[in-house]
Write a structure and sequence with these properties.
Number of strands: 18
Order of helices and strands: HHEEEEEEEEEEEEEEEEEE
Oligomer: single chain
Strand order of the largest sheet: 1-2-3-4
Shape: globular
Mean pLDDT: 89
Number of helices: 2
Strand content: 25-35%
Largest sheet: 4 strands, antiparallel
């Protein structure tokens, strides 16, 4: 048996690794523990992940855990990066499960970029694991803005996510979690990094069209049957795109939802309206009913039957 020589080799490897960590820490001024954690993160990032993630783990919880956090996404090398210069801190507004992974987007508050994607394995909700962080503040993710929704569709065997940006919208190919690709950047004429005006505030993808709420400018309708070549849809007969607010209920538009031939629009950070629309003709929404004035609210959700509003400071 050769247990002793094998032990000697393993000890030598560990000694070399320890020496490398200490040397790197001395050169960079970082603690050996921080250096080791960064090395571990790099090894994890290099791992090949399955295309289909494990999904959300269904654990058993104690009564003392009810209504308490069991995991956090923090500002560290496993979560949100340090604040970008001259911007507000990064925040996380929306998240979805996609192909068995949890996907979220971080960006500064108030409509400016840059930002990025975070993708997690949440099979153990008590110990979520970072699978991918895509953060290229001078590159692909420079135009990311505060997210209020994600658009998702599968077309020709590829899985896409659409997001609002400071200049319009973007399409990303999420088919392979190991090789996520930016597919298309589509600028929208009136969108220019606004917060509540000149903004791509929220979107909804009901294939083949993406509906983009753009505040006082109405809603853009994007033909996304080929995401790599998405364009503003031709509504025919010279009709404008964006569809003006006067044809949609007459208020600044933020939250937007579609289910089948039904569209619901509301305002945001306002007392303005709520509208129900028929989109049997998807290029020409028709108002069915509208409510003009409401108690002050910030944003809304729609579950197919009811609209729920959130209130600032209450």
């Amino acid at each position: 048996m050769k247990i002793r020589p094998l032990f000697s080799v393993m000890f030598s490897v560990l000694a070399l690794l320890f020496a490398a960590v200490v040397t790197h820490a001395a050169v960079t001024g970082k603690s050996p523990l921080e250096t080791f954690n960064q090395m571990s993160a790099a090894v994890t990032a290099a791992a090949v992940e399955p295309l289909q993630g494990p999904g959300l783990g269904n654990l058993t919880y104690t009564s003392s855990e009810l209504f308490t956090p069991i995991s956090w996404i923090r500002r560290d090398d496993q979560g949100v990066p340090a604040t970008y210069p001259n911007r507000k801190a990064f925040g996380l507004n929306a998240g979805i499960m996609h192909n068995g992974y949890f996907v979220t987007l971080f960006a500064p508050d108030s409509g400016l970029g840059p930002g990025g994607f975070l993708i997690y394995d949440v099979s153990n909700p008590r110990a979520i694991r970072l699978v991918q962080r895509i953060y290229e503040p001078e590159g692909r993710t420079a135009d990311f803005r505060e997210a209020h929704s994600f658009g998702v569709s599968t077309i020709a065997g590829k899985d896409y996510i659409a997001i609002a940006t400071t200049k319009g919208i973007e399409f990303w190919d999420f088919t392979d979690v190991n090789d996520i690709q930016q597919t298309r950047k589509l600028a929208l004429p009136t969108v220019n990094a606004g917060d509540y005006a000149n903004v791509s505030w929220q979107l909804w993808w009901q294939a083949p069209y993406v509906y983009v709420a753009s505040a006082n400018d109405g809603i853009y309708i994007v033909d996304a049957r080929d995401p790599a070549n998405a364009v503003l849809a031709n509504r025919g007969a010279g009709k404008p795109n964006p569809v003006p607010t006067g044809e949609l209920g007459g208020f600044r538009i933020g939250p937007i939802f579609t289910i089948g031939n039904h569209m619901v629009l509301t305002s945001m950070d306002n007392t303005d309206g709520i509208a129900s629309l028929d989109i049997s003709d998807p290029l020409n929404p028709k108002v069915l009913d509208a409510v003009g004035s409401n108690p002050f609210y910030y944003a809304t959700c729609f579950d197919g039957k009811s609209v729920y509003a959130s209130v600032r400071g209450g």
